[in-house]
Amino acid sequence: MLTENPDVAKSALGKNRAIGFMYKGMNQEELKKFYAAQKEQMAANKAKRDAADKMEAEWQALSKSIQREVARQDILDQRQRREMAKQLMEENQLLAMQQKEKEKYFKEVVYNNTPTDEYYSQFNTTTR
């Protein structure tokens, strides 16, 4: 029962299977294969992590560039709104000045003809 022969622990169900209570461990060749496979898995996982980190860095760079572009566009939009507001204010001031001049003209020229007593005396002078 306690034998050092690893062939005793092999199962009849398959050559890669072992009987649990008879298994004594791996030999040096199996350990080397195991460690080599482990190193390959570690290298593959590291490559996968590096690729994911690289992808994340690219996404971060893209996000920052988009944020910069949006901020630049916001500044341009604000500048355009200020220019439009300034232009509108100037136009409104011009219209207000024209309206005041028009009102002044009407007061001084058009509405200046106030009726006198002579105007009122021409009414109600005849029977008809």
TrEMBL record:
InterPro entries according to UniProt: RIB43A
Subcellular location: Cytoplasm, Cytoskeleton, Flagellum axoneme
Top-level taxon of the source organism: Eukaryota
Xref: Pfam families: RIB43A
Coiled coil regions in record: none
Primary site of residence: cytoplasm
This protein's UniProt keywords: Cell projection, Cilium, Coiled coil, Cytoplasm, Cytoskeleton, Flagellum
Homology family: Belongs to the RIB43A family.
Assembly with partners or alone: Microtubule inner protein component of sperm flagellar doublet microtubules.
Name of the protein in question: RIB43A-like with coiled-coils protein 2
The organism of origin for this protein: Papilio xuthus
